[in-house]
Amino acid sequence: MASRKDGNGRVLQKGEFHRKDGRYQFTYTNIAGKRCYIYADNLVTLRQKERDFQVASWQGATQYGSQVSLNFMFDRALALKVGIKQSTYASYRQTYDNHVREEFGTKPIKNISHSDIMAFYSYLVRSKGLCVKTVQHVHLQVFSACKLALQDGMLLRNPADGAFGAFKRAIGDEERKIRALTLEEQKAFLEFMDGHPTWGRYHSIFQVMLGTGLRVGELCGLRWQDIDVEKRFVDVNHGIVIIKAIKGVSKEHLAVSLPKTKAGIRQVPLMQPVIQAFMDEYKWAQAKKFASETIDGYTDFIFTKRNGSVYTSSRLDKALDDIVKAYNKQEEALAEYEEREPLLLPHISNHMLRHTFCTRLCERDVNVKVIQTIMGHASIKITLDIYAEVSKEKQLEEINKLADELDVF
After folding, report:
1. Using an 8 Å Cβ cutoff, are 239 and 314 in contact?
2. How far is Cα 295 from Cα 240, in angstroms, rounded to an integer?
3. What is the C-alpha to C-alpha distance for residues 113 and 125, in angstroms, rounded to an integer?
4. Which helix (H) or strand (E) holds 268?
5. Which of 47, 51, 203, 394 is 20 to 30 A off residue 328, Cα-Cα?
6. Is 318 helix (H, G, I), strand (E, B) or coil?
7. In this structure, are strands 227-228 and 233-236 parallel, antiparallel, or unpaired?
8. How many Cβ atoms from other residues are within 10 Å of residue 52's Cβ?
9. Burial of 34: CB neighbours in 10 Å, binned 0-12, 13-18, 19+
10. What residues contact 80, with CB distance under 8 A and at least 6 apart?
């Protein structure tokens, strides 16, 4: 039987329909045998609503046990957050699964104390190496689970209430801030990949990231139709996220996510090295006949592997780790041969490349509002914080230059 498609040629799944009025519809039968409908203006939003409905239905059918765990209450609390973006949902679940579920999350929630939570946060920083900002994200999920347990009458008070603030004061705010690559490091990083037999494939990908400041999900979701070489801009209007598997509901899969705020929808100007990177990528795409997978009806992605599958944030983070290790090994050997100090690269993440681009703009005293627009920051405070940090470093640099020039200190 041929697959049904919408008016744009995208394959529709079971229960999905494209109405004559342009809206999308999902049809299901409830527990009473009555046909029900979910509507949305576009296919991406409809599938997000489908996922919310399916998870909530599964969780709602589960009864509380005598030893309810923190994991159970987190899953239930997340299922009740109907209407949140897929990217937000995926972020909440990934944060919890990565840092809480396997150990602390198995504890019966009624046995968890305020000091237990503080000790757990301290363990995440001192033993697991998490930064305070990441622990804050963990806290939001733990707090949400405990709050629901309190509201359901399982707890007399929320043990997570005030735990993060107390923990932060206790450790003296040992947060490690993300730093930007220096100009020298950035140049060495790109030159190492350029033409490399193993890592050359990633040169254009990371050149675009360093030259646009796109979030990694936005970069992975770029399609050829989003690029306008003549007008020299890239249209940012969606991203790719990993939706973690939910037992009994769905397997891990990729999904298209729309921006959380209006600030996320933007046009980012393109400098010549970035345009050249896209041209190099176009040649790569031609060689493999523009093979590309389809995700939620979106296809024709720019950054894909030979089989057409898109790159993901985790795959690019792994590539960055391997590239840095390979570069540092080569640089150490070369520096020893040339009898000089090696220029070693620090640990690099996808977000660090975005932060580096923003830092380069701040270093050149670009208008703060312009930077906010290009970066897609929802709040000007985020931009100002980076600007202020760069300004401090520039002030120190200028003072040191002055001292050298005057030669009187």
Report:
1. no
2. 9
3. 19
4. strand 266-269
5. 394
6. helix
7. antiparallel
8. 19
9. exposed
10. 56, 59, 148
Q: Which positions ≥6 away from 324 have C-beta within 8 Å?
A: 345, 346, 347, 348
Helices 86-99 & 132-151, crossing angle to 10 degrees? 100
Domain boundaries, the chain: 65-171, 183-344
**Which CATH architecture is the domain 183-344 placed in?**
Orthogonal Bundle (1.10)
Dig out the tokens for 295 from the structure.
């995700």
Whether the CB-CB separation of 78 and 89 falls below 8 Å is answered with yes
| Rg of the chain over all Cα atoms, to the nearest angstrom | 24
From its phi and psi, is residue 235 left (phi > 0), alpha (psi between -120 and 50) or beta? beta
Per-residue tokens: 382? 């985020």
Enumerate the β-bridge partners of residue 304. Answer: 310
Nearest-angstrom CA–CA distance, 207 and 169: 40
Distance CA 201, CA 47 (A): 33
pLDDT in tens, 230-273: 999 999 999 998 877 766 666 788 989 888 788 999 999 999 99
Task: State the Cα–Cα distance between residues 304 and 220, nearest whole angstrom.
Answer: 8
Look-up of token digits 């899953």: 75
**Helix/strand/coil (H/E/C) assignment for every residue in 69-106:** EHHHHHHHHHHCCCCCCHHHHHHHHHHHHHHCCCCHHH
Q: Which of 106, 377, 382 is nearest to 268 (CA)?
A: 377
Measured distance CA(259)–CA(72) in Å, rounded? 29
CA 189 to chain centroid, in Å, comes to 22
Give the Cα-Cα-Cα angle 143, 145, 148 (nearest 5 degrees): 105
CATH class of the region 65-171: mainly alpha
CA 59 from centre of chain = 26
**Backbone phi and psi for residue 13, each to the nearest 5 degrees, phi listed first:** -85, 175
Tens digits of residue pLDDT in 30-61: 655 678 888 998 988 888 888 777 655 555 44
Strand ranges for 125-252 from DSSP E: 227-228, 233-236, 239-243
Are both 65-171 and 183-344 of the same fold?
Answer: no
Look up residue 230 and give its DSSP letter. Answer: T
pTM over 0.90: no
% of the chain residues with pLDDT over 70: 88
The CA distance from 276 to 203, in Å, is: 11
